[in-house]
Specification:
Helices cover about 35% and strands about 25% of the residues. It has about 270 residues and is of the alpha/beta class. The chain folds into 2 domains: about 180 residues, P-loop containing nucleotide triphosphate hydrolases (Rossmann fold, 3-Layer(aba) Sandwich), CATH 3.40.50; about 70 residues, no CATH class. It has a 6-stranded mixed β-sheet, sandwiched between helices. Strands 2-1-4-5 form a 4-stranded antiparallel β-sheet, with helices on one face. Helix 5 runs parallel beside helix 6. The two termini are about 35 Å apart.
Amino acid sequence: MLRLENIKKTFNIGTINEKPALTGVSLHLNPGDFVTVIGGNGAGKSTMLNAVAGVWPIDSGSIIIDGVDVTGLSEHKRAAYLGRVFQDPMNGTAATMEIQENLAIAARRGKSRRLRWGVTKDEKEKYHELLKELELGLEDRMSTKVGLLSGGQRQALTLLMATIQKPKLLLLDEHTAALDPKTASKVLSLSDKIIAEHGLTAMMVTHNMRDAIAHGNRLIMMNEGKIMLDISGEDKKKLTVDALLHQFEIASGGETFDNDSALLSKGH
């Protein structure tokens, strides 16, 4: 479903601030894979996600989604293949529009637009059922402006919007990092449920090692712009935070994993 072939990206080439961000990343995701991506600050996690989304062009290599080479496609043309949820709950929704209007926009993404605008009765019934599954009471507030929702409610709505058209690939970019632990746990559970029910292929970047271990069927650890570890199946199920740190040390030739927020999450 996703093939990254030796992708490279360096920022500020030729300047004093030149920084290699991806140094030849190759990664193949099968349909239905749910991959969690962990790594320290500057490891290349978000750069890889942004490269897949087409936020910026890569220097070399290729990106193939469901057999289609999208390497040269712009971000908005790539959007037809992707669903994305960002770290900031304010991204991904239109604050001044109603819940049902936001869902209608997401449902019509990539389709031809007509002059007639409005949410039909059938659509309202469909959105009511979808929102009901979130168990947040939003199905009774469909005409509420999204700007009045809490961060967790907004993130849950964004998740619904990102998956309403069953994308080829769902990208979750630290989508619970700005939420309190209880709300983050709820949004993660919703993510698991939606991914499983729709059989989606997904990639989730996180700083939290426990979350990376607990979710998905495959875990990737990045360091200095490359993939250091790729663990799946039974091996992933047996993982502990200490075992993961040990594996990283072996793979990196004795280097210790140095990231405060990830290490802090060991105890939670």
